[in-house]
Structures are given as C-alpha cells and as structure tokens.
Design brief:
It catalyses: tRNA(Pro) + L-proline + ATP = L-prolyl-tRNA(Pro) + AMP + diphosphate. One of its GO terms (cellular component) is cytosol. This is Proline--tRNA ligase. GO terms for molecular function: aminoacyl-tRNA deacylase activity; ATP binding; proline-tRNA ligase activity. The strands form eight sheets. Strands 3, 7, 8, 9, 10, 11, 12, 21 and 24 form a nine-stranded mixed beta sheet that branches. It is built from 15 helices and 31 strands. The chain is globular, with a radius of gyration of 29 Å. The model has no long low-confidence stretch (mean pLDDT 96). 27% of the residues lie in helices and 27% in strands. It is α+β, with helices and mostly antiparallel strands. Helix 13 links the parallel strand 27 and strand 28. The chain binds adenosine-5'-triphosphate and magnesium ion (MG). Adenosine-5'-triphosphate (ATP) binds next to strand 8, strand 21, strand 24 and helix 12. Adenosine-5'-triphosphate binds next to strand 8, strand 21, strand 24 and helix 12.
C-alpha cells in the first residue's frame, strides 16, 4: 500500500479525551476514530491488526477441533426470559441494548450468546454420540457499559471470539477447558503479549472453575495477586490467602468504654492503644434481590481487613432462596440517603456491634425485617476483642463470641486478600500485586443454561441428561489495544511483529530523487511479492516527517532509500531496538524474511 493513496492522517498532539498511552497512540497514529461514547471506527491499519489477531485466534481454535459459525446479534427476548437473564441484563445491570420491533416484539443486541447457542443445542443435540461439540464465532458484541473508556479497552461495541462447548459430563467439560487453557495461552504468546493466567471468580454459578487471561500493564482495571514461585495467581476478586496473625488482646475483662470521637478504626486504635487486629468491625451493606426485596447485611470482620464485595455478593446469592429470590441485582454500602428509606432510628454508625437490633429496620413489603449477619473467619478467631457498643461514642473491650455475642450461623470467607499476605499453598510465599487487563476468560458453566432452558441429550443407557457446558471468550479488539499498552515508547507504537498491520515500510527521503524512488519502488514490489507486507511512504513530505510517522505507527522494519544507495545499500531500522544496518539492496528481502520469521517463530 502506498501512503500517498491511503487515508493516512496522524496527529501531532495527544487527543484530549484519551487517558492511557495505547488509546492516545491508536488515535494519534490514525488506527481508530471515535464516533460516539464507546463507539469506534477501525480504520484500515487497525483492521489489519484485528484480522491478524483473529487469524491467530482461528488457528488456535481450529486446532482444538472447535468449529467456526456465526450467530445472530439480534436476539429474541424470549430466549433470555427462559434463562432468567432478561431482567438482569436489560434492567438491573442494564448492560444489554434492547429494542422493540414493528411487530411489538422485544429484542436484545447480543452482549454474549449462551442463550442462542443453548437453544441450538436443545434443538439439534439428541444423543451422546454427537458430543462433545464446540462452536465458536468472531463477532461484534454490544454492551451498554456503565463506563466505556480507554478506547477499545471498554467499548460499547467490540469484537469478541466466543465459543461454547457441550459435553456428556463434567470430566469431558474439563478436558475441553484444559485444551482452551492451552489454546488461549498460545494465542496470547503468539500475539507477543506478556500475560498471566489467573483463577477468577465464577460468580454464584458455583463450584466450577474459571480462568482469566490477564495482560500485565499498569493501565489494567484488574488487580492480580500472585506468588513468586509461580504456583498461585488469582484475580483479587477471587484470591485467598492467610491474613497476618492477630496480636493477642490485652483486654482480658469485658467492659464498656467511653470512646468519644472514635468512629474510624484508626481513631479507635489510637484511643485504646490497640492493634486493629484486635477489633471486630461491623460493616453495613444493603442488597436488593431480583424479587425487589431489600435486605440489610451486617458483616463482622477483623479490624485490619477489608470486605471483598465479589465474595460477599456470592455469599448473599447463596442465601437468595431464604428471601424467595434467585439472584442479586444490587449490593452497596447504604449512604445517608438510602439509610433514610429504611432506618427506623438513626444508626450508631462507627459504633455498631455484631448484635445491633433489628429494630433499627422499618420493615415493609420491600424491606426485610431482619439483618442478615455474616461473620468472616478472621473475626470468628478473635478472643477478648474490641467492638462497637451500639451507642455513639462507646465501644466494648474484652468481648468473646458465645459470651457477649452470639456467633452468626453464616461464617464465611469474604475477606479481601492483599499483597503482603502469606500464600495458602506455602506460607513462606507472600502475595504480590500486579495490574492486569482481562483479555480472555474461560469458564466451566456446568448445567446452568441447559437446566434453565431444557437442553438435554440421551446417554448410552437411554436416559435423558442435561448437557454440560463451557464458554470461552477473548476480546479481540481489547487484545489488540493491550499489545500497544505493553509495547510503545516516546515516539509511538511498537507492534509485536505477529500482529503488526504491515511488516515493513519503505521510506523515500526525497521523492524528487529519481534513483531513490526507483530503488524504493523496486523493493516495495519485490518485498510484497515475497509475502513481506510492505508500505511505501511515497508522500511529498520532508524525510523527518516520514520518519516520525513510521515510528508513530509502529511498523517493525523501516527501509530507507537514502545516502547508502550510492554504495548499493539501504538503511534498515528495527523499530523495537532502533538498531540500524546498511544492507545490500539485493539482500534486503532475504534478511527481512529471516528476521520476521524469527520474530514470529519465537512466539510459536
Ligand atoms: P470486564 O470484566 O472487563 O467487563 P467481562 O467479564 O464482562 O469483562 P466477558 O463477558 O468474559 O468479559 O467477555 C469476554 C472478553 O471480552 C473479556 O475477557 C474481554 O477481553 C472482552 N470484553 C468484555 N467487555 C468488553 C468491552 N466492553 N470492550 C472490549 N472488550 C470487552
Ligand atoms: Mg463486563
């Protein structure tokens, strides 16, 4: 491709609305263009990158025996009502765009395809002989994200590869899951990314596992905890660890203390000269179940620990049936305003004890009359602890479970693991923290959708059984941008060779020099014919501008038909290292072929 004929517009300055380097660079280098909030045009250079990533994804998927298909993006609401997700997706989370057609039928724009694929499996899979089966697609997904940001990282329209597998049992599902683990690792390695596979939260679906593939980068929205020995890595949402030991309490007798102005843990510890590990703090949440019932939640946890809201949400989802509900649609710390909607009298905030009376709640049809009380394991282990006295300005010290406070029947792990904690598998290892961009997620779904939507098969004994299911997603557009987030310098993008839009760019420093032009044209043709994807910068611009642009768009090799042509050579510059060599014109093709093959092969 000739730059003179391309829609090639680069910006000198950082666009105002871009926050992270990859977003700025893709905009500046003319790869993408913002059309609306979370909506981007993939311009020709970007489209080539996306095609390359897609190709790697296809190759790895096909190698596992999965088959490509294409499912509809317009999805009838009825399917989502069958699975029970219509209301959560359109109302509670509101992530799904929905519309009504001319026949007054409700439709959604596909954010994901479990419902569609399960409907197909229900109709078409009859017998164990058809299993296992794995279908995947590469497609644009729609999600009305609350906070679209960082360009392609979190768009409202983005490209995903999603695959769904069906099995006779869990053992077969686990085999495919393992294959996917390998396939995803291959995809990321081949795309030139530094990544970590981490244990991930599977939500309330239950025991089955899930792994996220995280590209390591400061701009990542996720926190990953891992140990140096490589034996443990998890998303902080899921991570477990051993907390630091609690210091023994010096309050050996139970008494109520006047502790004015100690509504925070810090102030209280200073006032009582004690460690936060000797405290039981009681954190108030409110949750709304899918039947509209609000339940007030009190979590007792050791004073130096924080609540992991993902774990808490999972625990509360398990309790949903106690309230005649199936799932949770909201969980948050009630602010003053929302407290007013249910608090019968003002709460002694900062001084709450595990046994705060249910009388604080004004019950009605929508508000459950009792607190649900959860005790985190870290609180349960404490002896002679300090906690609130349910009265502003007062705490109790030297308290014990079973003596002054009844221990909740809901003892749970809702503690947030953090860097510096000791690892469970080996307490000598401490957890370290890194930021990650989630580019892929593989998931053992089990029978969730097959049960709710009635997708079954007949086994060898002629019995009807629910299908076991897995799903596997990789964000193709997010992955492409992540590569930039991991690889750039002050001058621009440094694409990994395997996914660069072009391998090489031939730059003519002076297009009025006939010899420069002739050699450049010859190389351009020759390289492209040899399968080296090459751009030709034949614009009537100053050499400096051309070099700057080549650096900015990040093409791995730049060939300059400059002074060296007097000696029958051209200058070849490697973008990543800036290593410059003068190479005999006739040898450029073979040298580049080798370098490119080597760069791609290392990753294979
Ligand atoms: P996140 O937690 O980042 O919102 P998710 O858990 O909703 O991601 P999945 O539903 O598992 O994501 O989707 C599979 C993959 O699709 C993700 O791993 C990610 O790479 C990509 N993805 C998800 N949402 C977006 C988005 N809004 N923009 C771009 N890519 C996305
Ligand atoms: Mg999401």
């Amino acid at each position: 491709m000739r730059l003179s004929q391309m829609l090639f517009v680069t910006l000198r300055d950082d666009p105002a609305d871009a926050e992270i380097p990859s977003h700025k660079l893709l905009l500046r280098a003319g790869y993408i263009r913002r059309i609306g909030s979370g909506i981007y045009a993939y311009l020709p250079l970007m489209w080539r990158v996306l095609q390359k990533v897609s190709q790697i994804v296809r190759q790895e998927m096909n190698a596992t025996g999965a088959q490509e298909c294409l499912l509809p993006q317009l999805q009838p609401a009825d399917l989502w009502k069958e699975s029970g997700r219509w209301d959560t997706y359109t109302k509670a989370e509101g992530i799904m765009f929905s519309l009504i057609d001319r026949r007054e039928q409700q439709l959604g724009l596909g954010p994901t395809h479990e419902e569609v694929i399960t409907a197909i499996a229900r109709d078409m899979i009859r017998s164990y002989r058809q299993l296992p089966l794995h279908l995947y697609q590469l497609q644009t997904k729609f999600r009305d994200e609350i906070r679209p940001r960082f360009g392609l990282m979190r768009g409202r329209e983005f490209i995903m590869k999603d695959g769904y597998s069906f099995h006779v049992d869990e053992a077969s599902l686990k085999e495919t899951y393992q294959d996917m683990y390998q396939a995803y690792s291959n995809m990321l390695r081949r795309s030139g990314l530094a990544f970590r596979a981490v244990e991930a939260d599977s939500g309330a679906i239950g025991g089955s596992g899930s792994t996220e593939f995280m590209v390591l980068a400061e701009a990542g929205e996720d926190e990953v905890l891992f140990t140096e020995d490589g034996k443990y890595a998890a998303n902080v949402e899921k991570a477990v660890s051993l907390p630091a030991d609690a210091e023994p309490s010096r309050f050996t007798t139970y008494e109520k203390r006047d502790t004015p102005g100690t509504e925070t843990i810090d102030k209280l510890c200073q006032f009582l000269k004690c460690s936060p590990t000797q405290l039981v703090k009681n954190v108030l949440y409110q949750t709304v179940y899918d039947n509209g019932i609000t339940v007030l939640v009190l979590v007792s946890i050791r004073g130096d620990q924080e609540v992991n809201e993902v774990k808490l949400q999972n625990e509360l989802t398990k309790l949903a049936s106690n309230y005649g509900a199936k799932t949770i649609i909201a969980l948050d710390v009630p602010n003053v305003e929302t407290q007013q909607t249910w608090a019968a009298k003002s709460l002694p905030l900062g001084y709450i004890a595990p046994d705060i009376a249910d009388e604080y709640i004004t019950a009605n049809k929508q508000i459950h009359p009792k607190f649900v009380r959860l005790a985190d394991k870290t609180a349960v282990e404490l002896k002679n602890f300090v906690t609130g006295a349910n009265e502003t300005g007062y705490h109790v010290v030297g308290a014990n479970w079973s003596a002054q406070f009844q221990l909740s029947e809901n003892v749970v792990d809702v503690r947030k693991a953090r860097s510096g904690d000791r690892a469970l598998h080996n307490p000598e290892q401490t957890l370290q923290s890194a930021r990650g961009i989630e580019v892929g997620h593989i998931f053992q779904l089990g029978t969730k959708y097959s049960l709710s939507m009635g997708a079954s098969y007949t086994n060898e004994q002629g019995e009807e059984k629910p299908l076991f299911m897995g799903c596997y997603g990789v964000g193709v557009s997010r992955l492409a941008q992540s590569a930039v987030e991991q690889s750039y310098d002050k001058d621009g993008i440094i694409w990994p060779v395997a996914i660069a839009p072009y391998h090489a760019i031939v730059t003519i420093p002076n297009i009025n020099d006939a010899q420069q032009v002739e050699i450049a044209e010859k190389l351009y043709t020759e390289l492209n014919q040899a399968g080296i994807e090459t751009l030709l910068d034949d614009r009537d611009e100053r050499a400096g501008v051309k070099f700057k642009d080549a650096d900015l768009i990040g093409i791995p090799y730049r060939i300059v038909t400059g002074r060296a042509i007097a000696n029958g050579k051209v200058e070849v510059v490697e973008r990543a290292t800036r290593k410059s060599q003068e190479i005999v014109i006739d040898e450029v093709k073979s040298t580049l072929k080798q370098s490119i093959a080597a760069a791609i092969e290392v990753k294979n």
